[in-house]
Amino acid sequence: MGRLAHWALGEDGLSLYVIPQADYLPGERVKVTVRFADGAVPATASFWLVGHAAKGTRRVEVFRQPRPPDVLKKERDEAQAEARQCQEDKARLLAEREEPGGLMGAVWLEGAGVVASKSLDSQVRKPPANALGLEVAWSYSYTPTGETNPAGVVVRLRLLNPGAEPWTLAGAALVDSAGEEVELARWPLAPIPANGAGAVVVGIEGERAQLGCPCTLKLWEDAGPRTVTLGNVEFPVNQQEGP
């Protein structure tokens, strides 16, 4: 599935970084075994790395020894708060399935603010393995009056489908320069026809829109191997750069 690019041993953990091979298949599994040198039990721990066409888990924590109750309680509270946030995000995304809201669907936003746009055509990186071609790419940001941070960011793409089957966007995510990944709302949901072209719009609003860029944009089908990855995606700040 890949080769071990880097590993780092710390006082309380081990970090592994894997670079996937270009020909690995979704669902392919690789076993990794860690052996402990202190002679305590357990002496080893094994993990399975499972390939996915677009998604990945950035961090997995496995603890060898029992942990203090106060630490577990704190982590439980944090996990519950994160789960609530995910539920709220999910509800918002589902509400936007019929038609996009906010910056994604409006030419004029309610309230005062600055909508800025930026052409990405000359800077975005397009890996050869992408399933679709890129014809046009624009990024947008909305900053309320008096604020310095954006309240929403959007990317609009016109994609070319050279395949013999339609391509339907099932999910989208942005990965910022620190490696943090956020899921994006998406529209429209109509497929891009075989040997044809179509536009897609993806974006996010709220605090999670304040990303450290340049970012990587990932698009994928539902349970399909045809994915699109675009690197060096940036958003304009408080200025109009569009046509």
List the helices and strands and how they pair.
Layout lengths: L1 E8 L4 E7 L8 E7 L8 E7 L18 H27 L17 E7 L13 E12 L7 E10 L9 E5 L5 E3 L1 E3 L8 E10 L9 E6 L6 E7 L10
Antiparallel strand pairs: 1-2, 3-4, 5-6, 6-7, 7-11, 8-9, 8-12, 10-11, 12-13
Short description:
The chain is mainly beta and 243 residues long. The chain is 11% helix and 38% strand.
What characteristic shape results from the CA principal axes?
globular
How does CATH name the architecture of the largest domain? Sandwich
Strands, total number? 13
| Number of helical regions | 1
Largest sheet: 5 strands, antiparallel
Helix share, percent: 10-25%
Q: According to CATH, what is the topology of the largest domain?
A: Immunoglobulin-like
Number of separate structural domains: 2
Please state the average pLDDT score: 78
Global structural class: mainly beta
- Helix and strand pattern: EEEEHEEEEEEEEE
Kindly estimate the percentage of residues that lie in beta strands according to DSSP. Answer: 35-45%
Enumerate the spans where pLDDT stays under 50 for 5 or more consecutive residues.
106-111
Placed side by side, the strands forming the largest sheet appear as 5-6-7-11-10
Which CATH first-tier class of the largest domain would you pick? Mainly Beta
Distance between the termini: 44 Å
Work out the radius of gyration.
21 Å
